[in-house]
């Protein structure tokens, strides 16, 4: 499917695409292109639908906290790797 932007930079998605994927999208800039990813009206509900009952008893704030901790660990590990490379 090919679409052009209008004079204001808007892209109009066909009705069948909106009916299938919804009206909200996240725009992701990648090195070689731009991608649109549908966003559920209730992202947590979308996650639960995708993974079944794996998080059924988990509150949203707990999931956010766990995700933040994981990202912090990854950032620290990457920083440690860079500092070790700089020392060599």
UniProtKB/TrEMBL annotation:
Give the region (Disordered) as residue ranges: 59-88
Q: Where is the composition biased (Basic and acidic residues)?
A: 61-82
Query: What superkingdom heads the lineage?
Result: Archaea
Put simply, this protein is called: SpoVT-AbrB domain-containing protein
> Which classification does the entry list for the species?
Archaea, Methanobacteriati, Methanobacteriota, Stenosarchaea group, Halobacteria
């Amino acid at each position: 499917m090919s679409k052009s932007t209008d004079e204001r930079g808007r892209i109009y998605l066909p009705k069948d695409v909106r009916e299938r994927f919804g009206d909200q999208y996240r725009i992701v800039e990648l090195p070689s292109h731009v991608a649109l990813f549908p966003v559920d009206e209730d992202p947590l509900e979308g996650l639960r639908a995708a993974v079944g009952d794996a998080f059924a008893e988990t509150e949203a704030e707990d999931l956010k906290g766990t995700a933040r901790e994981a990202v912090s660990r990854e950032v620290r590990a990457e920083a440690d790797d860079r500092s070790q490379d700089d020392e060599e």
